[in-house]
Amino acid sequence: MKTATTVIVGAGQSGLAMSRHLTDRSIDHVVLERGEVANSWLTERWDSLRLLTPNWQSRLPGYAYEGDNPDGFMSMPEVVRFLRRYAEVSHAPVETGTLVTRVRRLDAGYEVATNQGAWWCRTLVIASGACNIAATPALSADLPHEATSLTPTQYRNPDRLPEGGVMIVGASASGIQLAREIRASGRRVVLSVGEHVRMPRTYRGRDIQWWMDAIGAMDVRYDTIEDIERARHLPSPQLVGTAERVTIDLNSLQKCGVECVGRLVGLDDGKAHFSGSLANFCALADLKMNRLLASIDEWVRSKGFDDRFPAPQRYAPTAVDPQTKLSLDLRDGISTVIWATGYRADYSWLDVPVLDRKGRIRHDGGVAPAPGMYVMGLPFLRRRKSSFIDGAADDAADLAAHLSLRLTRAAA
Amino acid sequence: MTTTISPPAKADNGVNVSALLSARSSLEEAPQAAQFKWRASCVWLKGTHSRSVIGNFFGLGAEQSRNKTFSVEADHPQVFAAEDNAPTPVELVLSGLASCLMAGVAAVAQRRGIQLHSVKASLEADMDIQGILGMDDEVRNGFGAIRVHFDIRADASEDEIKALVAQSQKRSAVFDIITNPTSVFVTVN
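ok -> structure tokens follow
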């Protein structure tokens, strides 16, 4: 069995950032990657997807975007090139094509079984991502057999879909992006909308991510949030990265002809049933967006920067048709259903009792309740930005310090 | 992780929020205790007039007995050739929705430290009675739509008040019962 002080599972932004910090601290380690560096970005995303954060915000320890389009948004091949280059310049000890099949406690550390043989380590960093599996609701099993069922990890582009209309379930970043491009391809699109987070792409002349960064919202720590569980499970904001920096919201989608309906609550005999709660979910999202814009305006005012930015503005409330459908017979031209209902991490290989009753890893700011075990890259793990590329640096610095202290104490 | 957050002491809407919050954290430890059963029984009086009696319920892992029972009557108005002894069942549904949202507004306001001065909800529901009269199979029996209007006086901004009402709907049992399907199983004898 090969040994390393630390095994990092996953060579995405989190695993590579941690590797860089461990190298700086001369802690010997290996990064096990099931595919190639940045595997999920390469193989599990649709063709048109671009990062939701602008290029300048792709900052990693000792590495940042240096291209000539800081306000652009990377396509997936660009993200992959960006991370592969990082792995090279960091001399990250990545073992590609190495699928972790089981992790269990062994002696005072962990045995990491892989398809390329086993490793033993004293400390383990789980950086395998938050979005391994597209989560689909239980009622997806009731879909009629003639309808094609897809998740965003399987979807590639509108041309690959069967003829006919599409129902998209979920209106977070994935759902609204797919609704926009599938509708633009000339198909009928029905969008089922539950809880969602509305945000303009730009506000007062800057990208919304620039504002969130500037006002300190991205740096808010997990241990200062009143209801961290809720903050960790918010849907992703309705954003898209495009060269034109367009804003997509339910109003713009409806203008393009997308039919919005409530949350999908039942499927029987080919008929979909929707909740009557659409108006309230839209009201909640409008109010939440306005609170964010108000906090931006307040920050500008408090800094005395009012003359540096265009004047504040507010956007039209989300229009909800009083005649919104409560049911839809899918046999009337809906041939595909796409479940944009979120993602979850895959811990099927983790044979250490650290999961909660919902199968999520328990942790305190990334420190798992098992000796020397850490997790990274999950939503609001330590900060609001933890699951962003830009969040890997600070989290890796904190957790590398914790890990290093642990090794020192164990040695003393 | 334990966090204690007390709302600003000045707001008092008569809701014991800290008891609700501590109940929530106890239930995190023992989720099976969150399983409740609500009950009502109803007897026919005469014509369309009936009386429901509401007493015990099950929750927190045990039968919960009240030291009293409540009685709720229902009937239909004279335009339905009935005696109008009590509200119609569909009006009681509106009352149930109103009361549920009202309780939510008070609880959320307390949690957010907002003092309420007055809260009034007015409800109206559309119904095409061709459905219940069996005149047209394509018309549903129930409401076509329900409109709720809140008039709230409170020490808060307009958006904060709107957020109270929105959050109340998000956490309302009756709102959920009305907006989402529920399986109903009826047996006889």
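Chain A has nine helices and 21 strands.
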